[in-house]
Amino acid sequence: MIKGTNPVMKGDFPDPDIIRVDDTYYMCSTTMYYMPGGALFRSYDLINWEFVTHVYETLEDTPRENLDGEQNAYSNGMWAPCLRYHNGKYYVVFVANDTHKTYCFTADKPEGPWTKGYIEGFYHDCSLLWDDDGRVYIVHGNREIRLTELKPDLSAPMPGGFNEIIIKDAPGPFLGYEGSHIYKINGKYYIFFIHGCAEEWIRIEAAFMADDIKGPWVGKDVIRYRLPSTTGVAQGGIVDTPDGKWYGFIFADHGAVGRIPNVVPMHFDETGFPVFDTPTEEIETESTRPDYVYDELFKSDNFDYTPDENGRVKLDDVWEFNHNPKNDYWQVLDNQFILTTEKLSRTVEFARNTLTQRTYLPKCAATCTIDASELNDGDYAGLVMLQHRYGCIGIAKEEGKYFIIMRGRTEEPDNDPDKSDDREFARVPLDGGKAKLRMEASFDLGLSEVDFYYQSNGEWQKLGVTLHPTFDLRHFVGCRIGLFAYSTVITGGKAKFSEFVYEK
Questions:
Q1: In whole angstroms, how far apart are CA 253 and each of 14, 165, 176, 195, 259?
Q2: Which residues are within 8 A (CB) of 76 and not within 5 positions of it... i.e. 6 or more apart?
Q3: pTM for the whole thing?
Q4: Nearest one of 296, 275, 432 to 369, comparing CA atoms
Q5: Residue 9 and residue 12: Cα distance in Å, rounded?
Q6: Mind listing the pLDDT tens digit for each residue in 232-263?
Q7: Which of 17, 163, 223, 447 has the most C-beta neighbours closer than 10 Å?
Q8: Which tens digit of pLDDT belongs to each residue from 185-207?
């Protein structure tokens, strides 16, 4: 048996959908506006996971996804993927709210290459089902759940095909049914949803069952339980093991660190209806490859990469850029990640090519050496804890002089959520433009804290204020550790990052 603790992945891997192909479990998670996107993972025991690949390098070439000026895709981009395997082919289907398109990526193997396609129409939180008669359906919607028959090639709705609302949640000021996951198991049809209730803010998992895909559908809530420091456990896929056991793989909110998957055992009662065990912190599963050694989901990096024939490198899958990167303005050379600024930015939130990793529950820290000797006046470079309420420690250059600064957005100014209060909280002079900087973070549903440090004479010195980040829907992801550089006066400055150390 393999023992683990919920949540199993310890970082922001929301909206998971999961399948098993032979002895291997695959999971795809929402990546929103981070690129490369469509993170795909592999496991042999449901508890330990590693990256397989990203389904796409970039989604679209739009001003919002490019982070042009202050246009952005924060809280948008890829939402709630559906991962399926059918007739030897892998599918990842999802919508992006900023482009208002439905994407259908396909591949012959999980590692790719993945080919981008589109499904005509917009299908919120969708899920695919190929029925035994060859028909294919997509279920989608919020509060009112619609079932739409698609053409066999998934390009568009089937002319004259079934397209009706099949399930409705009650009206009210709470989250209605969404996050659909549809299955056919032992001749019966199942759809699982997340929703809320009017009495309290809690995520609830609901399940519906039918003998015919067109209904009638009968269902109820199947999980209404808070694991410690969560707002409830709901939304995700279900999967069976090779020996016939069933598990839900569903997320829970953990505050600023993000939404993290949990493993919940389940079974089907004598009527065929799904029954979930009460979620617990301790979990045991069996491995299909007990001796397998997993790669890490959170990593240090000395930026020792081998360039391809075009002189480019592929960064480790743990790294994702904030929005589409401009590849001509970043490089890896001599064990350094190098950023060249190519736009003026008012704050770090709009900096191009910020390179990020997810944060780790319950605590993590990041240390990096920054060489800012080639910055221009008005430039900033360093480490950021990125969310709407962000904080950063970095090097600023002003009138030819260098300073270590701590700045961020720590509260809403004048009760105006759209007005930036990015400001500097502390600075110290720096000789030579090179410094070793550090962030330390602890995460809890009620209160998260991030502190910022610089090294002086071999000792860590705290700088500025303690940041209290939250999970803000204006970004809609957990906090990210980021390496950034941006200009406020003139572009073309360079920052070099080395010796990046991630501590869990």
A1: 9, 29, 17, 14, 5
A2: 32, 33, 64, 96, 97, 98
A3: 0.96
A4: 432
A5: 8
A6: 999 999 999 999 999 999 999 999 999 999 99
A7: 17
A8: 999 999 999 999 999 999 999 99
